[in-house]
């Protein structure tokens, strides 16, 4: 997640840090160094001490801000994109509206509000949220008082008899990654172990030949660091397999590049970068999303894959400039300024507008999503 300037003082958070460090230390002492993926999973989702289990991560008072929290326009425009795709597919009379990692439920609430007028759309919606954290689930329930979502731990339990229309904003960046460093002979994995004084620290494994990295031998040099996210690829596999046969769509928005290249593992706390190993469970951990890996997984399952767009181009294509103008017309003086600055933050070339990328999936027989048509 994007780290932003500090706006509010950080609240004191003590008590959990020591517990999770102790747990990880004991585990490493007993069974040896763990992968970065295991470390990330424990820090984010440990049932008692994990970051998403214990912290109010999102928003001005939290550790990071996301696009739907910046402006209602984000969810509204995605709602219109989704409704258009639904109409393009013959307006199926029942479909699963799915969000992966809905955070505070802001995007889905804005999306539903923006689509109230689309004839038949709401009557067809069956709402499904994939969310690992119980704390986040309760925030989502509060944001959607008029709806009755079904929550899932994974995409594997989504209903199978209806098409899925899926969106995910800053979900894939929260999934655990592994890191590999190339040496003259092949790859070695970056592991989390203990220093002589018992402090968590990174080190290199013995040779770790992994098949998924064979293709990266062609475009990297010794010394290069690459990241893999098996969890993310598995999610896309499962969704794309269904979309390829049933129709529906998926929209993934996240920060990252066309390729994993270098160390992008980062920790953010109170809108500031911090050491990811200092206080496990107390900071948000993320890594850039490797969109090539996701696109490849989807194409292998037979889904249509859109070109990769920047968030700025995508939102401009959906009409954010007109939407902002209309909102500004009915807003008071400072309200209008806020709308203008939110728009600039979402699409600005020096920030989220280019750092964030958008990838869409559709069935082989259905049009690509609005805003993601080939240029
Ligand atoms: N989409 C929201 C929130 C992004 S934060 C927004 O844009 O504001 C990441 C979200 O994914 C949180 O809701 C977090 O609890 C959830 N999450 C993280 N890892 C997950 C996992 N492995 N499975 C399901 N949900 C997860």
Quick take:
By secondary structure, the chain is an alpha/beta fold. The chain has helices at about 15-30, 35-45, 50-55, 65-70, 70-90, 105-115, 120-125, 135-145, 230-245, 290-300, 310-315, 320-330, 335-345, 350-355, and strands at about 35, 95-100, 125-130, 150, 165-170, 180, 185-195, 200-205, 225-230, 250-255, 265-270, 270-275, 285, 290, 305, 310, 355-360. The strands form three sheets. Strands 2, 3, 4, 5, 10, 14, 15, 16 and 17 form a nine-stranded mixed β-sheet that branches. Strands 1, 6, 7, 8 and 9 form a five-stranded antiparallel β-sheet that branches. Strands 12-11-13 form a three-stranded antiparallel β-sheet.
Overview of this protein structure:
- The protein is of the alpha/beta class and about 375 residues long.
- The chain has 14 helices and 17 strands.
- It has helices at about 15-30, 35-45, 50-55, 65-70, 70-90, 105-115, 120-125, 135-145, 230-245, 290-300, 310-315, 320-330, 335-345, 350-355, and strands spanning about 35, 95-100, 125-130, 150, 165-170, 180, 185-195, 200-205, 225-230, 250-255, 265-270, 270-275, 285, 290, 305, 310, 355-360.
- The protein is globular.
- The two termini are about 30 Å apart.
- The protein binds S-adenosyl-L-homocysteine (SAH).
- S-adenosyl-L-homocysteine (SAH) binds near residues 102 and 174.
